[in-house]
Amino acid sequence: MATENLNLVPFVSVENMMDLVLETGIDHSLAELAQYIEEDFLRWENFDKTPRVASHSAEGVIELMPTSDGRLYGFKYVNGHPKNTRSGRQTVTAFGVLAEVESGYPLLLSEMTILTALRTAATSAVAARYLARPDSTTMALIGNGAQSEFQARAFKALLGIDTLRLYDLDPSATERCRRNLSGLGLDIMACGSPEEAVEGADIITTATADKQCATILTDNMVGPGVHINAVGGDCPGKTELHRDILLRSDIFVEYPPQTRIEGEIQQLAVDHPVTELWRVMSGELEGRRSEAQITLFDSVGFATEDFSALRYVRDKLAGSRHFIELDLLADPDEPRDLYGMLLRRQVVLDHQHTA
What we know:
- InterPro entries: NAD(P)-bd_dom_sf, ODC_Mu_crystall, ODC_N.
- Pfam families: OCD_Mu_crystall.
- One of its GO terms (molecular function) is ornithine cyclodeaminase activity.
- Belongs to the ornithine cyclodeaminase/mu-crystallin family.
- It comes from Pseudorhizobium tarimense.
- This protein is α/β, with parallel strands linked by helices.
- The protein has two domains: about 10-115 and about 305-350, ornithine cyclodeaminase, domain 1 (2-Layer Sandwich); about 130-300, Rossmann fold (3-Layer(aba) Sandwich), CATH 3.40.50.720.
- Helices cover about 35% and strands about 25% of the residues.
- It is built from eleven helices and 17 strands.
- The protein has helices spanning about 15-25, 25-40, 115-130, 150-160, 170-180, 195-200, 245-250, 255-260, 275-280, 305-315, 340-355; strands spanning about 10, 55, 60-70, 70-80, 95-100, 105-110, 140, 165, 185-190, 205, 215, 225-230, 240, 250-255, 275, 295-300, 325.
- The strands form three sheets. Strands 9-8-7-10-12-16-14-15 form an eight-stranded parallel beta sheet. Strands 2-3-4-5-6-1-17 form a seven-stranded mixed beta sheet.
- α1 (about 15-25) packs across α2.
- The two termini are about 40 Å apart.
- The mean pLDDT is about 95.
């Protein structure tokens, strides 16, 4: 991708993102994105890392998620407002920026509502490749909201999952998920309870939205050898798993200082042992050690994953038409004469009014 005017910033709209993903193919996009995420996890020590900056209210949360690898800087603005569905709005919306560290100039502005759904699912599947049993074929998907189909597609594309057991408090959500995933070669069962959904499951994904300490999974529902992909617990006071499950599991996280505040492990002592996912991916530490081991990916989402997603999109735009150029940067011919730039614009406007 190249622009003749360096002051114009590529912007990927929702429509652009959908077209880019569909042109590439959803499964292929997830696989490519997973590769970028894994590449950046493998250079984890190169990144600035900080827990996301969150503004909480009774209605939800608004967050900023920044990081840099020293060459590029990225951040995402994202919200989480579960009650939005009552007014026909999305629970989660997001946009992001990728910038050049050397100059500070933005290189890309992108929608990230769709992109976040893709990167969350891709990250889940990447983690499961290291933590789930290699012969896993069946996934229980509890919480059939906006993230559910993306999780299903990612696990099918990256792990070969071929059987889904769906459950949601709202049967219409399960029906929508089942309908959206039909024709993809998945054996899909709509279940009447969480207990029914987890029966025979190799992997359990929880992706509920309510901002509360909930018990989606109780201890008796989790048998030996299961991998749990806990996606929904992602802010203080919001969890999905009974504490006893955590005590039986080997827990893997993205960035402990953030996960201890926001993840399932907020229920545990601050020194409870957890393993950073990047250490498993690099081969420094073991992930799954036995068939009977219960592994838990306490996923809250971290800024490097958004950085990877923005980096992926910027690379995909090369030779693409799926963006527009924004006049985003005030950059006068003489860098110190910003006021003069304003005066010259006034001359142009005066001329237009008298013409």
